[in-house]
Amino acid sequence: EKGGYEHFMLKEIFEQPNSIADSMRGRLDAANGTLTLGGIYEYSQALINARRIIVLACGTSWHSGLVAEYLFEEYCRIPVEVEYASEFRYRNPVIHEGDIVIAISQSGETADTLAAIELAKSKGAIILGIVNVVGSSISRVTHEGAYLHTGPEIGVASTKAFTGQLSVLTMIALSVAHKKGTITQTRYKELLVELARIPAKIKEVLDNNAVVEEIAERFKDAKNFIYLGRGYNFPVALEGALKLKEISYIHAEGYPAAEMKHGPIALIDEEMPVVFIATRDSSYDKVVSNIQEVKARKGVVIAVVTKGDALIPALADYIIEVPPCEEALMPLISVIPLQLLSYHIAVMRGCNVDQPRNLAKSVTVE
Ligand code: M6R
């Protein structure tokens, strides 16, 4: 069942090179520069013409929706609003006939997401589903959609479904951008080639497991954690914090790194581990300044950095390296060490990682 792993969560973390490849199989053909998403066919023109996109989701799926916001805005030039399904459904939201809704759900059974979809649908929105569980309630109420094809996820903490969602959302965004002409042919092809390299890069990160385990040993008794990132790595910071709190019961918060100075900076002292997702990208210099601000207040910094970076390793207390990667695809890679970190900390604290207290795999109550 667990394929020789101690827990489903660990198995699912280590499955990601394969599950990501599965999510791309038959869809991504990097050699010929094509993307084929059979599930989104009838409404592909509506997506190209969309004046805005509303994303509806909860929890980890909401985090992948945030990454989609960056992707669709950057490459398709379509404004995106990412909504907690539970808030959206109760506030009399503005929905226009023909609006595009992307609903994201691993289980396809989340009560709030389902109800928010039905509300949007009743007002004439087109609903596209990004779902893992085939034949689930959400997959049945959507107009069209794309399954993740990542296989069943058993651990309550979502891992391979998150990266599967990112993979599918990236393929949809790039396909729309290509058809719409908001991306150059060269850039499009480059990104497809890079996308095809993701499984191998994830494998490289997983080979660093022992480094992450040592860091977990050092911080397993911490009372609080902060996770910081900017741009595409901001949702990864939120996801890292959620993973840690749900399975290890350590209080953790994720923030956009620049928001730190508007409040959370007051928490920083010698005891407080601050996890920076600080890979080489367009906000790198800004993140370096944020790390310096934390060090100036005696905070302890754990940084996820791009292999070969010399500057941040000189500033941070602990380093986890990930291979270089396109900025827009980095969340697929940078989240992996954070999944491992929360896993190891939870195991060291004796927690039930696959079935954390008070949580269920699908939240079918509102
Ligand atoms: O099945 P869904 O994707 O709709 O579930 C949404 C959340 O309940 C889920 O992501 C939850 O936050 C996970 N336990 C996170 O690991």
UniProtKB/TrEMBL annotation:
Single Gene Ontology MF annotation: carbohydrate derivative binding
Gene transcribed to yield this protein: glmS
Signal sequence range: none
Residues of the active site: 361 (for fru-6p isomerization activity)
Function: Catalyzes the first step in hexosamine metabolism, converting fructose-6P into glucosamine-6P using glutamine as a nitrogen source.
Superkingdom to which the source organism belongs: Bacteria
Enzyme class, spelled out: transferase
Keywords: Aminotransferase, Cytoplasm, Glutamine amidotransferase, Repeat, Transferase
Domain SIS: 43-182, 215-356
Localization, UniProt: Cytoplasm
Protein name (database record): Glutamine--fructose-6-phosphate aminotransferase [isomerizing]
EC number from the UniProt entry: 2.6.1.16
Subunit structure: Homodimer.
GO process annotations (BP): amino sugar biosynthetic process; carbohydrate metabolic process; fructose 6-phosphate metabolic process; protein N-linked glycosylation; UDP-N-acetylglucosamine metabolic process
